[in-house]
Specification:
- The structure holds two protein chains of two kinds.
- By secondary structure, chain A is an all-alpha fold.
- In chain A, 75% of the residues lie in helices and 0% in strands.
- Chain A is elongated, with a radius of gyration of 35 Å.
- Chain B contains eight helices and 14 strands.
- In chain B, the strands form three sheets. In chain B, strands 1, 5, 6, 7, 8, 11, 12, 13 and 14 form a nine-stranded mixed β-sheet that branches.
- The chains are: A mainly alpha, B alpha/beta.
């Protein structure tokens, strides 16, 4: 009998202990969930008693064995020797077995105390557990227990706000895992196996699964710890590898995984890491497909469960589509930012420069792709890769590329709107429309033909104006303000474009009446929406605020400024009308200038507008007086 | 999701707002009297953990240094129900008459006096009781205002609904037989609970009857259906519609008065002092749902970019979106118990209330800074 302890493994006493252990586990994991509100820890207290009994029974075993033979003590010496020689006999020694078993009971007692809100006692048990096995932490018998106990200590200390301590425990858990995998790598003993009779040993596969899951949790906790410590990048990396491990080890719920991956894409996109963002999104789309077909409307009407499933799947897929929209939109906006000159037009020289640099970049991309952390299991890898290929991850540099990206975004807009219908999801639906409008706006930047560009803006008006008019301002004040401002800006932009087109053909003195009508219409529409926005700032009693709140300070003053400009640009043949418009214009400029005088703190937000308004306040009266004089002389 | 996550999200939306002077949310702190039957003090322990130092400051006897908190109003133990009403609700009811939404939240740990403040003594159904709370008094005041207006040829329509949010599920307290309900949005009506029973009322006593019926159902549900009321939020909504004909033009105004009894604040422990607690994995169904929350917080760090976060609001914050930094008048009544045993809870309630002051109307305008001047 090579292992003293093995003799007892099949004895009836030992069998009794195993049964007790199973009962304790069942009480903790299953029964405890049915405990009444006023006695929430009933089952856990019962489990604790049993664990204590097991503990003393184990101690008794130890005592009897030590009495009957002296080999126990020798066994321990052997281990120490083994350590000195750099080898580990521990797994084979009876002392080692006993220590591991005691350690496991300490672990379960520790968790039990923590769950019943006796943290210090819990901590003590966990530390006892560590002491018993820490020397042999990377042996195949102990390594799983070591990772579990360190995970628990991490949770314990972070609960006390001692994040650094928590981090230290979790990082050593990680180190232990890595050392073990380098050294041994075969699936280690699960701690529940310490207390199972021979016929109940786990399969190779099950051992692997449990061990890897424990380590996945280490990663997951580290992701949180790093987030609390403000180590954002590291935290993101750990979120990424948690997801990666879940996928590879097939330990995930598809819809939840997909949503987490889609959320992670938003992190990358915000960092400007589009290749990583695209990768997360492609994986999210593919994995969400594993959740199965959306139940039909008919099936949903039959059963409540199908109804809920239908709703969940549709909603989550629509959410993933919305993450894709943001991907396309941000990429287009970044491209615009990279290419625009100081008046917001496409800079041709810059475009050529970037195109030349692009060739080198493409090669770089190939390299970095290989080093990037990739998602995918054997089955899904190809589908994810082929989805990725359909969307570019480099900033578009010309209209063709921009249009391709726009179209992808537009497809996802359609998809997202299928679930987030206006009737039922007003806020979501409008947010999607706002994104759609923003996609058009970004695309228009790449369009050379001014007439076609104008048409794109018209599409934006068509999708936003009816909603702005229908939306109840009482409940959707903020959204309505956004829409009014956006519409005002679109009309303003369209007017600028029309004027540029008209000026190319002839000088402004000889504009035909049709063009003048058109220009004045756009001018009026823009002013109308700016004024609607300003009206929305009135209090319940109808008063305009004396002090503008921080969030509306800049938009409110900018709106004033624009309205002032718009009134001065209306083309009117009758001088008295022109005079009237100029007076309105002056009033608005005065408001901005006076607000700036009364509230010096506002000037930082609207520096340019303020300066120009002050200038106009001094210049416009001269123009007005000249017109007045002209009117008199005409009469 | 844990039962208290409604307030949890409310809390986080409070925290994420920026500071500044703003009157969209006001805070009224009420200290309840010390009695021995609440289970919150041990017998004979008359030590207090706080002192009201003026009508808007309170000093907490913390160690080593005492801390002073400032609010819109602080009411000491001897304050009358009527003056609580006058301080908190009167103004809100008046602006509801003018077409603006109003919300009153009661916040605090279980046993700190939320129900007493909002309703009155629990055993009394008496509408004339001197101890009746904010809600019955609001009804009386609202209908007295309505009656004055009706004389001036204005007509009113008033309907009530009463729902409970427990564990992120919505239950109708006016129809205890109904299945769980869903939130929906409509371009004209805003956010509402689809299918919730609406009872028309024409007087304060009718409204009070609807309220007590719902309140009874809440109690029944908490015993027979295993819903613990200290873990649920109860939202009583009164929708007011006024119609006025001026020069043959019909002018319709609608408004809502929400009266909210939040879940006991002690249930949200983990979000207050223990903000850095790790979310554990539930290994049973491989769920790492909270990973999403971790990532969300990473995304929040980056500003000014377009992003979409896939996780929905809690039901409570969604329903009361307007009241949390929107187009509404909102008052939070923070109830605290002065007993020294309640120090921890009282501190976290006072901190919550202070953060609530920072909620702002988030009117972000997507304005392009490039094209300003051309």
């Amino acid at each position: 009998d090579p292992v003293g302890n093995m003799a007892s493994v099949n004895s009836s006493d030992w069998r009794a202990i195993c049964e007790q252990f199973t009962t304790a586990l069942n009480l903790t994991e299953v029964e405890s969930r049915k405990d009444p509100e006023n006695d929430p820890f009933r089952s856990k207290y019962k489990a604790r008693e049993i664990l204590r009994e097991i503990y003393s029974a184990l101690k008794n075993f130890e005592a009897t064995e030590a009495d009957s033979e002296t080999s126990g003590e020798r066994g321990e010496e052997q281990v120490v020797d083994g350590e000195k020689d750099g080898q580990c006999f521990y797994g084979d020694s009876p002392a080692g077995w006993r220590a591991a078993k005691l350690a496991a009971v300490e672990y379960f007692l520790g968790v039990n105390h923590i769950e019943t809100e006796e943290l210090s006692a819990g901590q003590e048990h966990l530390m006892n557990c560590m002491k018993l096995i820490d020397k042999w932490s990377t042996s195949s018998m102990n390594v799983s227990l070591v990772i579990h106990v360190k995970n628990q200590l991490g949770i314990l200390w972070s609960g006390r706000g001692e994040t650094e301590t928590a981090k230290a425990f979790l990082e050593t858990a990680e180190g232990t895992y890595l050392r073990y995998m380098k050294k041994e790598g075969s699936p280690p003993t699960d701690m529940t196996e310490y207390f199972s009779t021979e016929e109940n040993q786990l399969t190779h596969q099950e051992r692997t699964k449990r061990f890897e899951l424990a380590y996945t949790h280490t990663k997951y906790y580290l992701a949180q710890v790093y987030q609390y410590l403000g180590e954002t990048e590291l935290s993101a990396t750990y979120c990424h590898s948690t997801l990666q491990r879940q996928l590879q080890l097939n330990q995930f719920n598809p819809m939840e995984w997909a949503l987490n991956a889609a959320t992670l894409s938003q992190y990358y996109i915000n960092k400007g890491l589009y290749m990583e963002g695209r990768h997360c999104l492609s994986a999210a789309t593919v994995i969400s497909g594993l959740a199965g077909e959306v139940p039909s409307e008919a099936a949903a009407e039959e059963s409540e469960r199908e109804q809920e499933r239908r709703d969940q799947l549709r909603q989550k897929r629509a959410d993933i589509a919305r993450c894709w929209i943001k991907y396309c939109l941000n990429l287009l906006l970044d491209a615009k930012k990279a290419l625009e000159d100081n008046i917001g037009e496409l800079d041709g020289d810059r475009q050529e420069e970037l195109k030349a640099a692009r060739r080198a970049e493409v090669e770089e991309e190939e390299k970095s792709r290989k080093s990037a952390l990739l998602f995918g299991s054997e089955d899904t890898f190809d589908s994810i890769a082929s989805l990725e290929e359909k969307v570019q991850s480099l900033t578009p540099l010309d209209f063709t590329d921009a249009r391709a990206l726009f179209l992808v975004g537009q497809t996802y807009v359609t998809q997202a709107k299928e679930y987030f219908e206006m009737d039922g999801f007003v806020t979501d639906h409008i947010e999607i429309l706002q994104d759609h409008s923003a996609l058009f706006r970004a695309l228009a930047f790449f369009e050379d033909d001014l007439e076609r560009r104008c048409k794109m803006h018209k599409r934006r008006v068509d999708m936003l104006e009816p909603i702005c008019n229908d939306l109840n301002g009482h409940y959707y004040l903020v959204i309505r303000r956004q829409l009014m401002f956006e519409l005002a800006e679109i009309y303003n932009e369209m007017m600028d474009l029309k004027l540029t087109v008209a000026n190319c053909q002839s000088d402004s003195e000889t504009l035909d009446s049709h063009t003048i009508k058109k220009l004045n219409h756009l001018c009026g529409a823009s002013a109308k929406f700016f004024e609607m926005f300003l009206e929305s700032l009135r209090s319940p009693e109808g008063k305009l605020p004396e002090v503008l709140e921080e969030e509306v300070l800049r938009p409110a003053l900018v709106a004033r400024f624009r309205v002032a400009r718009l009134y001065s640009r209306v083309i009117c043949p009758v001088i008295s009308d022109k005079l009237e418009n100029l007076n309105k214009s002056l009033d608005h400029y005065k408001y901005v200038a006076q607000y700036g005088d009364a509230h010096p703190e506002a000037s930082a937000a609207v520096e340019t507008e303020l300066e120009l308004s002050r200038e106009m306040v001094s210049l416009l009266p001269i123009k007005i007086n000249r017109l007045k004089a002209q009117m008199i002389s005409n009469n | 999701r844990s039962p208290g996550s409604g307030t949890k999200l409310l809390y986080s939306s409070v925290c994420s707002s920026r500071s500044g002077d703003n009157d969209s949310i006001k805070v009224f702190v009420r200290v309840r009297p010390l009695t021995q039957d609440t289970g919150l003090t041990t017998d004979g322990d008359q030590n207090l953990c706080l002192t009201v130092t003026s009508n808007n400051t309170i000093r907490l006897h913390s160690k080593p240094e005492p801390r002073t908190f400032t609010y819109d109003h602080v009411a000491d133990m001897d304050v009358s129900q009527d003056s609580v009403f006058a301080g908190v609700a009167k103004n809100i009811v008046e602006s509801c008459m003018n077409g603006y939404n109003g919300t009153i939240f009661a916040y605090g740990q279980t046993g700190s006096g939320k129900t007493f403040t909002m309703l009155g003594p629990s055993d009394s159904d008496n509408f004339t009781d001197e101890l009746r709370g904010v809600i019955p008094r609001s009804f009386e005041y609202l209908f007295s205002l309505i009656n004055k207006e009706v004389e001036r040829s204005k007509s009113f329509l008033c309907k009530c609904s009463f729902i409970e949010i427990y564990n992120e599920q919505i239950y109708d307290l006016l129809d205890s037989a109904s299945a769980t309900l869903f939130l929906r949005e409509n371009i004209k009506k805003g956010v509402f609970v689809e299918g919730a029973v609406e009872k028309f009322v024409t007087s304060a006593s009718e409204a009070y009857q609807v309220l007590s019926m719902g309140w009874r159902n809440r109690r029944v549900a908490s015993t027979s259906m295993n819903r613990e009321s200290s873990r649920s939020h109860a939202v009583f909504t009164m929708a007011l519609e006024s119609k006025e004909t001026v020069n043959k033009l019909v002018n319709i105004r609608t408004s809502q008065l929400n009266l909210v009894d939040l879940a006991g604040s002690e249930r949200q422990k983990d979000t207050h002092t223990e903000g850095s607690r790790l979310k554990e994995a539930s290994s049973i169904n491989l769920s790492l749902m909270c990973l999403g929350q971790v990532i969300m917080s990473l995304v929040d760090v980056a500003n000014g970019k377009n992003r979409h976060i896939c996780y929905r609001d809690s039901k409570l914050t969604f329903l009361l979106r307007d009241s949390l930094g929107g187009n509404a008048k909102t008052y939070i009544i923070a109830n605290v118990h002065p007993g020294s045993k309640c120090f921890g809870e009282t501190l976290s309630t006072l901190q919550f209330a202070q953060r609530a002051k920072l909620i702002k109307n988030k009117a972000m305008i997507n304005e392009d800074s490039q094209g300003n001047v051309r």
